[in-house]
């Protein structure tokens, strides 16, 4: 099974903590293996690590990566790279091609303006509509299209707790 990881660009510790945490949690919940953070913010590693500890799975966060090096090394190891941007080709046009490739996949999302070099370094610039919205929503739609909805049924090994779905109220089981 190939690896799917996120590279989070442009994180500003003073204002993006919540959004970046949600990028990581969305990635984890929807089938990705880990997130590289192109900024130094150990708080993100800790908060997502706490979720992994309780809710299971092997999702990793690597703090303070150099983004160009991260992309270069990913490609040197044989991986491919997709960048989510409202300026890219429509997701419906490219996702089947991405899905059929067996290589590990790195998905880049930005915060504010993404450096122009990124567009030329990647294999696919992909839009989820050509309207401005968010890194969380575009990542969620892209992963769901990539995995064709099957990620919803994944198991999270070594979980300490899990939700027992119910029609009304909340039921959480200690395992
Ligand atoms: N103005 C910024 C730019 O030009 O890169 C966009 C910032 S947006 C708030 C943050 C991130 O959300 C983008 O870097 C991109 O990864 C993602 N994003 C926003 N709208 C998108 C769309 N329609 N399709 C794909 N990704 C999108």
UniProtKB/TrEMBL annotation:
<keyword id="KW-0489">Methyltransferase</keyword>
<dbReference type="GO" id="GO:0005737">
    <property type="term" value="C:cytoplasm"/>
</dbReference>
<keyword id="KW-0963">Cytoplasm</keyword>
<keyword id="KW-0949">S-adenosyl-L-methionine</keyword>
<feature type="binding site">
    <location>
        <position position="84"/>
    </location>
    <ligand>
        <name>S-adenosyl-L-methionine</name>
    </ligand>
</feature>
<dbReference type="GO" id="GO:0106059">
    <property type="term" value="F:tRNA (cytidine(56)-2'-O)-methyltransferase activity"/>
</dbReference>
<comment type="subunit">
    <text>Homodimer.</text>
</comment>
<comment type="similarity">
    <text>Belongs to the aTrm56 family.</text>
</comment>
<keyword id="KW-0808">Transferase</keyword>
<dbReference type="InterPro" id="IPR029026">
    <property type="entry name" value="tRNA_m1G_MTases_N"/>
</dbReference>
<dbReference type="GO" id="GO:0002128">
    <property type="term" value="P:tRNA nucleoside ribose methylation"/>
</dbReference>
<keyword id="KW-0819">tRNA processing</keyword>
<comment type="function">
    <text>Specifically catalyzes the AdoMet-dependent 2'-O-ribose methylation of cytidine at position 56 in tRNAs.</text>
</comment>
<dbReference type="Pfam" id="PF01994">
    <property type="entry name" value="Trm56"/>
</dbReference>
<dbReference type="InterPro" id="IPR029028">
    <property type="entry name" value="Alpha/beta_knot_MTases"/>
</dbReference>
<feature type="binding site">
    <location>
        <begin position="110"/>
        <end position="114"/>
    </location>
    <ligand>
        <name>S-adenosyl-L-methionine</name>
    </ligand>
</feature>
<protein>
    <recommendedName>
        <fullName>tRNA (cytidine(56)-2'-O)-methyltransferase</fullName>
        <ecNumber>2.1.1.206</ecNumber>
    </recommendedName>
</protein>
<dbReference type="InterPro" id="IPR002845">
    <property type="entry name" value="tRNA_mtfrase_aTrm56"/>
</dbReference>
């Amino acid at each position: 099974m190939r690896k799917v990881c996120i590279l989070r660009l442009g994180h500003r510790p003073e204002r993006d903590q919540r959004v970046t945490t949600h990028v990581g949690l969305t990635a984890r919940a929807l089938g990705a293996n880990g997130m590289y953070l192109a900024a130094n913010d150990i708080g993100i590693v800790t908060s997502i690590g706490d979720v992994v500890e309780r809710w299971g799975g092997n999702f990793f966060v690597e703090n303070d990566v150099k983004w160009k090096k991260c992309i270069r090394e990913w490609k040197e190891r044989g991986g491919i790279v997709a960048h989510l941007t409202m300026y890219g080709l429509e997701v419906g046009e490219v996702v089947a091609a991405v899905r059929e490739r067996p290589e590990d996949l790195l998905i880049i999302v930005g915060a504010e303006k993404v450096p122009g070099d990124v567009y030329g370094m990647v294999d696919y610039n992909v839009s989820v509509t050509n309207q401005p919205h968010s890194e969380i929503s575009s990542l969620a739609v892209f992963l769901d299209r990539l995995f064709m909805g099957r990620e919803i049924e994944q198991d999270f090994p070594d979980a300490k707790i899990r939700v027992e779905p119910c029609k009304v109220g909340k039921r959480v089981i200690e395992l």
